[in-house]
Amino acid sequence: MDNLIQFFLPNVSQVMDEFYLSIAQTLQMVFLSGLISFVLSLFIGIALISTKKSGILENLFVFNFFDKVINLFRSIPFIILIAALIPLTRLISGTAVGVQGTIFPLIIGITPFFSRQIESAFNEVDEGLVESGIAMGLSPFQIIISVYLKEGISSIARVSTITIISLIGLTAIVGVVGGGGIGDFAIRYGYQQNQLDATYVSIIVLLIFVSIVQIIGTLISKKTTH
Amino acid sequence: MSTSEIIRTDHVVKVFTVDKKAHPVLKDVNLSIEKGEIFGIIGYSGAGKSTLVRCFNGIEKPTEGRIFFEGQNIVGLKARELRSIRRKIGMIFQQFNLMPSRTVFDNIALPLKHSGLSKQQINKRITELLQLVNLPDKRNAYPSQLSGGQKQRVAIARALVNHPKILLCDEATSALDPKTTKSILYLLKRLNKELGLTIVVITHEMSVVKEICQKVSVLDKGKIIEQGDVYSVFSNPQQELTQSFIETTSALSSVKTLIETNSPVVRLQPGQLLLKISYTTNSVSEPLISYISRTYNVDANIVFGDIQILNDNPLGGLIIILSGQKSTIDHALEYLIPKHVAIEVLNHG
């Protein structure tokens, strides 16, 4: 086994510990920023769907605020966003490097996209269901819980899959600024030292991550569709 | 205001504003719905029926006018008060609007959220309702496993779970085939009788009104152009639109096409007369046709007829060919005219 690794990965096999660590770092970044962003995006998505025109709590001021802020952040390329956020990241995380320094920019980078995705998932919920909820005498809060969230689960699972996969891509980009993780590993060994095996093995690891996320996402989406 | 009134609209106006352009949808609608009746509101699409019915439970807020539910003006009520009114008003829809991710049981139980009922009470209530709508074995099915008629039955059960006073049906049978439509209408009729449930039926099909309604309002471009009990509106329609609705359900109108195409069925010999005789009141019990042929010596050949029983009264008429001498035919007609039947001479031989 060890021989096999040494044969296929002549360079990576020299830094196996670092390789394993970078995998763990990527998982940590995806999990933490994904989870926090998911919660934030649910709230923003709910705000957008309820305050939109003829929504259950129509409020165009709130809607336009979130709508414009999302557009603003989505128009900034992630790599520039990281740089722009450095002072704020230092303030919040205490550092702008390493895994600890990447969580905040990752959240800011993915949440606007995630919120739009969640909003579109809610938009897929049939208006008729919302109307029948209103006719039943449900409160706006009950409609959010019992109609949008409950009936939107399958769509939410689907858009979350797409978003987590994008997020995995972003965690690789933070490698450029020394954020740690697979991206960092691939840049330092594969790119800067021209060790091709490091690049390829990084691709394979990311491919496995993406596949696992996709399989889980599809499974949840199927299980929640009746 | 009479005490038996459950819903009354008072000069209701609704204007939608799209791109700063005003679109009046309801123009001064006044109607009154009594407890225990099945009230039809008929009109073509775009007439404002759905908007009107949504004003009844406050989903739409009228631009002007007042809506009374059991004597209380619901226009301008706070959201919380409006929600408690809505629990007394059931509503079903053309597209059923069942929650696809929930079983039949959970769909029916949905309006009971935070009602304070125990699990057992909820269970008992839903068992009752499934019995009532005749779907006792579907409690754990998902909506996607049900037929259209079954979905509407579940929707009816869901609408009734809070013991509402009134059920609003927004084109509830328009997505169903004729046979299923009949069975749903029969169910509504039964609920009306057994529970004393007031039912408002919104439809574009006159056959639905004819099947179950006692009163009807004809809505055209946001205005009520005719209303009254179904029998008098049907037997004696005043407005052209009402007539056109009624023609859709009566076979008698096809005689016009037969005459135009010179069909052998209505071709006349010299001296013959093609007549349409229709009921105008519900008190016709005399054997008119056999009487005139016996007394005046005219032959009455019934070409075809369409007589239906509406609220226990006959409605419709006959197309007949009268033959005989001109004077005897005239006598026969003179006899018929005061007999509360409408006589229309369609063609001379």
From TrEMBL, chain A:
PROSITE patterns, alphabetized: ABC_TM1
Domain ABC transmembrane type-1: 23-217
UniProtKB keywords: Cell membrane, Membrane, Transmembrane, Transmembrane helix, Transport
Transmembrane segments: 29-49, 69-88, 95-114, 161-187, 199-220
Its membrane topology: Multi-pass membrane protein
Annotated signal sequence range: none
Gene3D superfamilies, per database record: MetI-like
InterPro entries for the chain: AA_ABC_Transporter_Permease, MetI-like, MetI-like_sf
UniProt keyword annotation of Endoplasmic reticulum present: no
Pfam family, one: BPD_transp_1
Primary location recorded for the protein, binned into one broad class: membrane
Subcellular location: Cell membrane
Keyword Metal-binding found: no
UniProt similarity note: Belongs to the binding-protein-dependent transport system permease family.
Database matches in PANTHER family: ABC TRANSPORTER PERMEASE, D-METHIONINE TRANSPORT SYSTEM PERMEASE PROTEIN METI-RELATED
Name the UniProt record assigns to this protein: Methionine ABC transporter permease
Species, as recorded: Sporolactobacillus kofuensis
Lineage start: Bacteria, Bacillati, Bacillota, Bacilli, Bacillales
